[in-house]
Amino acid sequence: MDDPANDNGPRQLTLDIGGERIFVADSGGDLPAILFVHGTMMDGTVWHKQVAELSRRYRCVCPDLRGHGRSTAASPDISFEDHCDDLAELADRLALKDVTLVGWSMGGCITQVFVTRYPGRAARLVLVDTIPQRLSDDRFPYGQDAESTPKTRHALETDFVATARGFGKRIAPEDEAVAAYISDLASKARQDVTINDYVSTDARSQIDLLPEITLPTTIICGEKDLVCKPGASTFMAEHIPGCTGGVSVIAGAGHAPFLTRPGEFNALLREAIDADDHAGD
Q1: Tens digit of pLDDT for each residue in 164-175?
Q2: Can you point out the beta strands (E) in the chain?
């Protein structure tokens, strides 16, 4: 895997936000910003292939969410709203402008909340391999079975490292190097925060938020995503008024197309930003 850190990479900051120390990598510059939000067990370094290609044109900002990566959390009981409040303050502190908010997996769930909790703070939204609800029910058949969480929790409690290291093969079955990178990153996550991520998400449904998302929205998913079913992306596209272009499906990709198919993903991201910028031309 490419090394996400190098001598010419983004500056690394730690900000006091919400009583915690929130780490952020920021490529800087007086440029339109892309604020990248990672998923559970991950951190902001997962976006290194986007930063490497896009930072000349955009200000790429990659925080570690509270309790993830290098960011602290006094308690593992962290809500999506807590993350949203952290991101809003971070954006203010860094004076980000013309923000494209990109959320992957759990990060996509968080960004759905952000744009409704803080309307007008982002110019556009990009949802990547995510869901509005983790568990399946009558109105949303694209989630996980209710029995999946007790099984996952038991595995995480009894052998966290082994369970975490198995994460990579489900995330990126099409690319062994990316799967190994994801597995290594996941194995270093906080056990208590990870369990909270899974358990607290099951109690939520954000389907009723989707009609409130009116800002320009792009939805991207991997054709072979085993974690967030592609049907979930279609469902969101049909229920989000700001999504007028349907779903952009990356052929052959799993749950992390920005890592396994970065060229295609970055092109779609640039296209989403440019299309919105030129919408009034």
Answers
A1: 999 999 999 999
A2: 11-17, 20-26, 33-37, 59-63, 100-104, 124-128, 217-222, 247-250
